[in-house]
Amino acid sequence: MKTFSSTLQRRTKGFNDIHDMTEEVRNALAESQFRNGIITVFIPGSTAGITTIEFESGAISDLTNAIERLAPKDMHYQHDARWGDGNGFSHVRAAVIGPSLSVPFNNGTMQLGTWQQIILIDFDNRPRTREVIVQIIGE
Ligand code: ZN
């Protein structure tokens, strides 16, 4: 077993900005030249998340609406009272979605479903430049 690490960069707009990262993760896997193992995709930061979805406009819109119901933007958040940065909703959303994802791969191919893409969601209330860490353990 060896490890391979790659850092991806994305400019994001915040407010549930969703990006398909599948191709870049696939490229990192190809670069590693590993055939079998596991990939971890992780985003440092407490106002963004990593998960999977069928990346089409209907599902994206449904997810965005569900997140809006889960932690509405226009509610009172204790975090905002303490820090005044106005992104209490962003922290709650990020905590629920989670910051990382593990994907197994065999014969050099990630074992994702056909309609399952890896997405980064930026929940913050301002544009950011995000780094996504792709750490691969394999051989
Ligand atoms: Zn904050």
Main attributes?
three-stranded antiparallel beta sheet, elongated, 139 residues, 4 helices, alpha+beta, 8 strands, 29% helix, Jelly Rolls, binds zinc ion, five-stranded antiparallel beta sheet
Strand percentage lies at 35-45%
Helix and strand pattern: EEHEEHHHEEEE
Terminal CA distance reads: 5 Å
Number-wise, the strands total 8
Radius of gyration: 16 Å
Total domain units: 1
Name of the level-1 CATH class: Mainly Beta
Q: Low-confidence spans: pLDDT under 50, at least 5 residues?
A: none
Mean pLDDT: 97
Q: Compounds present?
A: zinc ion
Choose one word for the global shape. Answer: elongated
Main sheet makeup: 5 strands, antiparallel
What does this structure look like?
It is a single chain. With 139 residues, this protein is an alpha+beta fold. The protein has one domain (2-138): Jelly Rolls. 29% of the residues lie in helices and 38% in strands. It has a five-stranded antiparallel sheet with strand order 1-8-3-5-6, covered by helices on one side. It has a three-stranded antiparallel sheet with strand order 2-7-4. It is elongated and about 50 Å long. The structure holds zinc ion. Residues 79, 83, 85, 87, 91 line the site of zinc ion.
